[in-house]
Amino acid sequence: MNKDKTIRLGIIGYGFRINVVSEQIKKLGDVRVVSICDRDLDAAREKAAVHEPNADEIRFFTSAEELLDGPKVDGILIGTNCSSHTDMAVKVMEQEIPLFLEKPVAVNEGQLVRMREASKIHGDKVVVSFPLRLTPWVDKVKEIVDSGVLGTIEHVQAVNNVPYGYCYFQFWYRDNAETGGLWLQKATHDFDYINHILGQKPTMIAATTSKQVFTGNHPEGLHCVDCAEKETCLESPYNPGYIEKQGELMGIVPEQFMCAFAPDAGNEDSGSCIILYESGMHVSYSQNFYVKQKASKRGARLMGYLGTVEFDWYSDEIKVYYHHREEVETHKLKNATSEGHGGGDEALAQNFIGLIKGEFASMCPLDQGVLSAEMCLTAKRSSQNQTFEKIN
Prior knowledge:
By secondary structure, the protein is an alpha/beta fold. 32% of the residues lie in helices and 21% in strands. It has a nine-stranded mixed beta sheet with strand order 14-13-12-11-7-10-9-8-15. The protein has a six-stranded parallel beta sheet with strand order 3-2-1-4-5-6, with helices on both faces. Helix 6 (136-147) packs parallel to helix 9. The radius of gyration is 21 Å and the shape is globular.
């Protein structure tokens, strides 16, 4: 395409996350959204009036087929609810249009098969929303690992203690059928950055999950606003001592919060797994969804015979511990930020624009999205069967 022309984008599923990404993309030059497909057109029009300078010119559609038959676009962003990612992505890929696809790329085995086949034909035109692999933390850790100063990495301990667990128990993410569960919602990012750093293929997974905290017998469908315990429950936004403010950032208003202690509050509240890789080394990974405040942590320790490197996205430091001399090396990340997945969203936006212009290949290709989703579905199957499961 002409590098100087306006880049015209279409959006399928105009939700919170895809709006964040499109805002990053629009900062990079003459880019405008010209088509939006959403099942709630009134809400989409209201949001566009706030976020799109050319809102009066945007065409709105209720189906992906109508959008694809509408005004020509140079790229499409998919931000629908998770269960429809596969269907929407296949429709777009068949048109050979550059695609930005939110994760997970599939939520069940049938969808995974479709995406695996699609990736063989159209995968070079897709950027999967894996911002963590593009952050300064991962860039620097991969540089250290690849330098060989640690020796070959033989063991990884990774963790994700999520301080905004309310999102997965009190909002639409609580619907397992819609999301595929929390391996696909959170671990998909972590599996991807670990694969990226190691440069190895995973072969087997053993996993387990627990639901010990967000259980109870409150009525299904109960909203916090209607609960007699709303001023005392620690998960209620109506509790005077409630500390969680991220709901406001995601556009969730108090009236939308549902009871986390009802049977329909799906999802496990913790999970752990062991991943075996082709060389024989292994990774241990654990995620938790009821920690709060300073207990939050997301990062890893990667260990070779000569040294260990560790990092945490909640810190601006990376530390290298040398095993055979008394030395600890600290790397400060000057440009690290807690916004936009630590700078990963900006990098995704730059990569997608470069892909549209024909300047860059995808740094988050579809085959890696498929691999991560397969690992998550294998972990889910392992936790159900209580066995080691092969990654096909």
